[in-house]
Amino acid sequence: MVRSMKPLAPVCFALALLAGAAHAQPQPGWKPARAAEIVSPAAPGGSVDVMSRAIKRFAEENRLIDVPFNVVYKTGASGSIALEYMAQNAGRGEFVFASSHTFLTIRETGDSKLDYRDLTPVGLLFKEFHVIAVKPDGPVADGRALIDKLRKDPSSVSFGFFGNPGNHLHLGAAIPLKAAGVDIRKLTTVQYRSGPEALTAVMGGHLDAALVTLSVAQALADAGKIKVITQTSPTRRGGYLAAVPTWKELGVNVEYATAQGVLGAKGMTAEQVGYWEGVLAKLSQDAEWKKLLARSYWEPAYMTAAEMKAYYDAEHSKLKAILAELGLAK
Question: For the CA atoms of 107, 108, 111, 112, what is the dihedral angle to 10 degrees?
Fold first, then answer.
């Protein structure tokens, strides 16, 4: 008796499909094949540096990168040196840039011919608020005294901060002080290589006030070496900030937050962006990273590359208008 072979046809067809599907599986995406760098425009110690080292450590500990991965410091010239370095490495997916709000306005203030638009968005990680820190026994006692003093003489208090006039740190004081009736175009400002350097100058009596983020001031405030007199958050934060009034409590209806994340070199491919975006997405869900956010008074704000671009473009338009209004645009 001859048996029919027809029932085998569907089986053979299914096996052929499975074999084809195996060959059609997507190949592993791009990964750095040579030494990678995260370029920091600020000296060690500030929040940009802390973020950079956290990204490096996470990528290495979780074996997300198979090549040497270093934080490279390109400080000075208000961040333009770091931007020029990134421009020299356009198209190289191994190079990423630790970004802050500074790079939304650095071209507008005339400190660089380049800004965030000359880089590739990769992802945002967190937002942070800002404080004004003074010497405990210095010439400025508190936030109200600061406002009164500056209304009478806008140049009577020296403010130090990392970066260029008109950057996110400067605006963290300039925006609320303008709303308080101070002519901020006459403020005395001094540039430093990092927030910790500005705080050191305050402690030494060489500077009246430092404009820094919450995390940068924390250790010295806890030790009683500096006094924080204002915070830009909508309500008082906990810890060392529990006794620090917000601008709103000082009668100034302003709150202010900036954001930090990662940009890539110009001309990165979608695969290269996808790799770094994946690293940041995983980092944003990491338990140790979340502890760092809490310790540093950073507000979680993970955004994809596309979301970061939309956010940066919106912030750029807003800050550009503010700079023009304040007379800081060049």
Answer: 10
Report helix angle 214-222 to 47-61, nearest 10. 100
The mean per-residue pLDDT over the stretch 198-205 comes to: 97
Look up residue 122 and give its amino acid: V
249 in any annotated domain: no
- DSSP assignment string, 227-246: EEEEE-SSS--SGGGTTSPB
Q: What is the pLDDT of residue 21?
A: 39
Does an H or E element contain 15, and which?
A: helix 8-24
Cα 169 from Cα 240, distance rounded (Å) = 20
Residue 160 structural domain = 130-241
For tokens 């917000």, name the residue. Answer: 246
Q: Which of 112, 138, 135 is nearest to 41 (CA)?
A: 112
Local confidence band at 42 (pLDDT 50, 70, 90 cut-offs)? confident
What is the number of structural domains in the chain? 2
pTM across the whole model = 0.80
Q: How confident is the model at residue 290 (pLDDT cuts 50, 70, 90)?
A: very high
